[in-house]
Each structure stands twice: as structure tokens, then as C-alpha cells.
Amino acid sequence: MKKWIMLLTVSLLITATVDAQMFKIGLKGGVGFSRLTFDDITGIEDGPDVYDLITGESVAGYHIGLQSRVKLGNFYVQPEVYWNAGGGTVEQVVQSGNIEGEVFKIRFGRIDIPVLAGIQMGPVRINAGPVGSVMITEDSNGLEQLSEEFATLGRTMGFGFQAGIGFDVSRISVDARYEGSLTKYLGDEVTIDGNPYTLDARPSQWLISIGYWFN
Asked: Which range of residues forms the domain containing residue 158?
């Protein structure tokens, strides 16, 4: 977390010293459609009950915050920070036993800090880069009853990437991006019924944003 705050702070301090034509700052906000990212967990035994946990449907959310941009010719770097509210669902599918399957809806509120690099061709932009996220609020809707580790998974700094396309018209910017997770590949695990599973509570999502530049 401290590294990402330092990176964002340094970026903003550097950009504050450059010419106004090279640097600008503004507001952004929009909607997101997120889906939890994990490998389906099958054959979980709980006494006489056997069930699977599979990725469920996507859910809609929103994001709002600040965007900045440093432009050098056709190239640019765009640090951002915003509040992101989203989530996803996990479906419990019963193979055998006396329980009924459930759909667990997970909601979160987190701070996202993407730092994107891109190229601009006229009004059109393409960009990509890493994003760090800090979970602030989380409601797992009873999922922790299956494993206490669900209650804490994802509360540390999580990492992902964003890539997408954007358009600029005067002071208005429009962006569409895909966000994927990197945390899963860094060894995140959860233990259920004494067995470890690779699991990442960080959702993948599509983000559609509109922004306004102050200068």
C-alpha cells in the first residue's frame, strides 16, 4: 500500500512542475460490471454433504475519483485514484446431502490506483498498466460460514492490470477498460475442509467511465 501511495504522490509532484500543456487533472466516474475470479472448487465434503463452489454471475457497481495525465508527444502516462464499489457472486452447487444450494453475493468498497501508459492518435487513445487496490469494506453475505478465511481474503493490497480504449473531445474523456487480476498468480490460497485451494477474491471487471478535465 505504502509503495503505491508513494508512487502516486511522486507522479503528481512531478506532473505539477511541468507545463500545463503537458499535464492536466480532472474528475472521472462511471459504472463497472465485475465477476469474481477463481478456479471452481469441487467435491467439498462437509459431513454427509458434498458440494461445489463455482463462479457466479457478474454484478453492477460504480466508481468515482480523480484522473491526471502527463503527455509527451503522442505518448502519455495517466495516474488515477478512485473509489470502486462492486463485487460478484459465488454459487454453491450441491452434489449430495441434505443441504440446499445458495448464491452468495459479495459486495466490496475499495480504493483503486491505476497507473496507465498509452498512445494517442487524434481523439483516440489506447492504454494499459498495473492497478493496485486496497479493500476498505467487504460483505461476503454468509460465505465465511463455509470457511473463516473467506472473511479476510482480499483485505491486503491486491494487484491487477487494466487495458482499454478511450476518446477525448475537448475537456470530456470517455474510457472503456477491462481489468484482470494478478493476485491469483502470486499464490493466494484459501483452506476449505482441510484442503488448500488457489483462490482470488479480486473480481475481473469491465469499466466504462466519463471524465472532465479542469484544464
From this structure: 2-33+61-85+107-213
pLDDT of residue 60: 94
Q: Residues near 73 by Cβ (< 8 Å), separated by ≥ 6?
A: none
| Cα 51 to the center of its chain, rounded Å | 28
Alpha-carbon distances of 93 from 41, 42, 53, 118, 142, rounded to whole Å? 10, 9, 6, 43, 15
In this structure, what C-alpha cell is assigned to residue 107? 459486495
Indicate the number of domains in the chain: 1
The Cα–Cα gap between 16 and 6 comes to 15
Q: Give the predicted TM-score (pTM) of the model.
A: 0.79
Is residue 124 included in any domain, yes or no? Answer: yes
Residues 35, 146: Cα–Cα separation, whole Å = 20
| Element of type H or E holding 87 | strand 75-96
